[in-house]
């Protein structure tokens, strides 16, 4: 640690006794939103009673000029609650509130990608889209170097780390475990977690989730990860190629199914979906995350950035149809192209648009 960096003083053991103090019926609500650079922000307010439904939650606002979301001379951005979850940090009746950002002109904020996605999902609700996202990420120390890596060098090549167990193979498992439990406590549909190919790289999966709730849950799970890691003094990076060179990048594999693909003979619907996806490669890549071309080199289990391909059990293609799905003739497909920093509202939104058609917002 450099001399200019002060020690982390976060001490959750000390915090514990204050968390137990009575609140006299008041509720702490943490409003979460997405800022102007794909980051997450939040602030707290006190509510006088426990909300039963999302409509019970008041609209709120913030200074959009401080988050890259509005000009200084017209800086109020409104926060409209869309979902809420039990708060795994404050416990009790306290809640985490997912919100959409809106302008004073009654229009969605330019960074409110949920709005258009929700319209698409609603219009095509009869297809009953399910999504499952595999969120990869890397844990860094305060100076931005992956945990467990030698200070002025690199660890031994990839091989022993993926799903690894034991000192020197995996790093920061406490953070992963704490995050997993926090997600479960909040009722998120987290479906698993595993150590990844690069040391200090991890993955968790959320899903299957219905339509728009996929984006809500994934964003909240990212918020939890940053929040948990903060208590351990670690940084989370969702960069798709955090370390240049012969190290795996990080993705957000997007598993997709519809009523039709899950039905008997659904393989036909999957093939039709492939045909549609093959015609919109550039449109998809445009919203599949920043710096994704650094990751999609065709090496390290990635496909080409420019060309759409699909195949059964092929991890080098844009879309993989799991072997078990091909064998059963129905199920889901895995779009392997999205980068780890992609916005799940944009990703799931364009999948619905490509498969089912545009909707006038
Ligand atoms: P991989 O073998 O690619 O590492 P994972 O086990 O990490 O796969 O993730 C698989 C994901 O697929 C999970 O998030 C799961 O929820 C999701 N999934 C499973 N079945 C479906 C389905 N029918 N529709 C959409 N997503 C699904
Ligand atoms: Mn103020
Ligand atoms: Mn996976
Ligand atoms: Mn993975
Ligand atoms: Mn995968």
TrEMBL record:
<keyword id="KW-0067">ATP-binding</keyword>
<dbReference type="GO" id="GO:0005737">
    <property type="term" value="C:cytoplasm"/>
</dbReference>
<dbReference type="InterPro" id="IPR008146">
    <property type="entry name" value="Gln_synth_cat_dom"/>
</dbReference>
<dbReference type="GO" id="GO:0005524">
    <property type="term" value="F:ATP binding"/>
</dbReference>
<dbReference type="InterPro" id="IPR027302">
    <property type="entry name" value="Gln_synth_N_conserv_site"/>
</dbReference>
<keyword id="KW-0547">Nucleotide-binding</keyword>
<keyword id="KW-0436">Ligase</keyword>
<dbReference type="GO" id="GO:0006542">
    <property type="term" value="P:glutamine biosynthetic process"/>
</dbReference>
<protein>
    <recommendedName>
        <fullName>Glutamine synthetase</fullName>
        <ecNumber>6.3.1.2</ecNumber>
    </recommendedName>
</protein>
<dbReference type="InterPro" id="IPR050292">
    <property type="entry name" value="Glutamine_Synthetase"/>
</dbReference>
<feature type="compositionally biased region" description="Polar residues">
    <location>
        <begin position="63"/>
        <end position="73"/>
    </location>
</feature>
<dbReference type="InterPro" id="IPR036651">
    <property type="entry name" value="Gln_synt_N_sf"/>
</dbReference>
<comment type="similarity">
    <text>Belongs to the glutamine synthetase family.</text>
</comment>
<feature type="domain" description="GS beta-grasp">
    <location>
        <begin position="27"/>
        <end position="106"/>
    </location>
</feature>
<dbReference type="InterPro" id="IPR008147">
    <property type="entry name" value="Gln_synt_N"/>
</dbReference>
<dbReference type="Pfam" id="PF03951">
    <property type="entry name" value="Gln-synt_N"/>
</dbReference>
<dbReference type="InterPro" id="IPR014746">
    <property type="entry name" value="Gln_synth/guanido_kin_cat_dom"/>
</dbReference>
<dbReference type="GO" id="GO:0004356">
    <property type="term" value="F:glutamine synthetase activity"/>
</dbReference>
<feature type="region of interest" description="Disordered">
    <location>
        <begin position="44"/>
        <end position="73"/>
    </location>
</feature>
<feature type="domain" description="GS catalytic">
    <location>
        <begin position="113"/>
        <end position="361"/>
    </location>
</feature>
<dbReference type="InterPro" id="IPR027303">
    <property type="entry name" value="Gln_synth_gly_rich_site"/>
</dbReference>
<dbReference type="Pfam" id="PF00120">
    <property type="entry name" value="Gln-synt_C"/>
</dbReference>
<comment type="subunit">
    <text>Homooctamer.</text>
</comment>
């Amino acid at each position: 640690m450099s001399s200019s960096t002060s020690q982390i003083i976060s001490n959750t053991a000390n915090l514990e006794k204050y968390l137990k103090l009575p609140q006299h019926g008041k509720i702490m609500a943490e409003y979460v939103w997405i800022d102007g650079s794909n980051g997450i922000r939040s602030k707290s307010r006190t509510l006088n009673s426990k909300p039963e439904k999302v409509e019970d939650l008041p609209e709120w606002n913030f200074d959009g000029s401080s988050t890259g979301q509005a000009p200084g001379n017209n800086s109020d951005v409104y926060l409209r609650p869309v979902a809420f979850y039990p708060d795994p940090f404050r416990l009790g009746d306290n809640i985490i509130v997912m919100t959409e950002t809106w302008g004073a002109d009654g229009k969605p904020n330019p960074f409110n990608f949920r709005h258009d996605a929700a319209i698409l999902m609603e219009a095509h609700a009869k297809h009953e889209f399910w999504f499952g996202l595999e969120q990869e990420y890397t844990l860094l120390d305060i100076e931005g170097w992956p945990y467990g890596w030698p200070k002025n060098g690199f660890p031994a090549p990839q091989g022993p780390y993926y799903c690894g167990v034991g000192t020197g193979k995996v790093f920061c498992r406490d953070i992963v475990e704490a995050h997993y439990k926090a997600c479960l406590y909040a009722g998120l549909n987290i479906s698993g977690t595993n150590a990844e190919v690069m040391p200090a790289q991890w993955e968790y999966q959320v899903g299957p989730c219905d339509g728009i709730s996929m984006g809500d849950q994934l964003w909240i799970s990212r918020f939890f990860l940053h929040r948990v890691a903060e208590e351990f003094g670690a940084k989370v990076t969702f960069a798709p190629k955090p370390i240049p060179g012969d190290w795996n990048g990080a993705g957000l594999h997007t598993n997709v199914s519809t009523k039709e693909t899950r039905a008997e003979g659904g393989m036909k619907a999957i093939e039709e979906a492939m045909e549609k996806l093959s015609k919109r490669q550039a449109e998809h890549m445009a919203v599949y995350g920043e710096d994704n071309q650094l990751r999609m080199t065709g090496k390290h289990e990635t496909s080409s950035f420019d060309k759409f391909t699909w195949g059964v059990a092929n991890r080098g293609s844009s879309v993989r149809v799991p072997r078990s799905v091909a064998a059963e003739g129905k199920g889901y497909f895995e779009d392997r192209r999205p980068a780890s920093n992609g916005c799940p509202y944009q990703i799931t939104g364009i999948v619905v648009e490509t498969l089912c058609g545009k909707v006038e917002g």
